[in-house]
Design goal:
alpha/beta, five-stranded parallel sheet, about 200 residues
């Protein structure tokens, strides 16, 4: 077992890591079901981004979550699409996007919910402090490179891809994330090698 990426040695992804000094800090909140999923891309993302951290859970202690979100006086921005039925479900309403658009990248913290859409929606529902964060929704993105996991719609991206495109947007394209996206292509190829072929 690799001590760094916690994967079996034959499936280690450490060599794929592409170190990037991201200006916007990344906070990954990972659903427990994703921790042992070999197809999960958050591990490669976290190995590559110098300014990143990860906490695992579904429902977090409110005080802990508040501290993670607002540490260092950074403004947290949740990478998540609009949820038109928020009020009907009893969600808190997100703060206006102007709150982060006026900030420099070094003042921001990108919050990622790492899980399936269903699980991430539940995480949002269970953690009220996430509901009121200003949100970033990705509009136009390239086709997904993530061909080893079933998507429910064409515009769904992996955690790594969505994070890269969000960081590019928040950092005004000042940092090149192409090497990390290329590393993901290698990751996909490596995982595909372990998928049994049909006769």
């Amino acid at each position: 077992m690799c001590a760094e990426c916690t994967r079996p040695q034959r499936n280690c992804i450490c060599r794929l890591a592409s170190p990037i000094d991201n200006r916007v800090e990344v906070l990954v909140l990972q659903h427990p079901d994703e921790t042992k999923n070999a197809k999960n891309t958050a591990g490669l993302l976290l190995l590559s981004l110098k300014n990143s951290q990860c906490y695992i859970g579904e429902m977090f202690n409110p005080d802990d979550l508040h501290n993670w979100l607002f540490a260092g006086n950074r403004t947290p921005v949740l990478l998540y699409p609009d949820t038109p039925d928020s009020e009907a479900r009893g969600f808190c309403m997100p703060q206006p996007t102007a709150m982060y658009k006026q900030s420099s990248p070094e003042q921001l913290r990108l919050v990622i919910l790492d899980g399936t859409w269903r699980k991430s929606r539940k995480m949002l529902y269970l953690n009220r402090s996430l509901q009121s964060l200003p949100r970033l929704a990705l509009d136009t993105t390239p086709a997904s490179l993530y061909t080893i996991r079933k998507a429910h719609s064409e515009n769904q991206l992996s955690t790594l891809e969505a994070s890269c495109y969000a960081l590019q947007q928040l950092e005004q394209q000042q940092i090149d994330y192409a090497p990390l996206l290329q590393a993901m292509q290698q990751f996909v190829a490596q995982q595909r090698a372990f998928i049994p072929t049909e006769n």
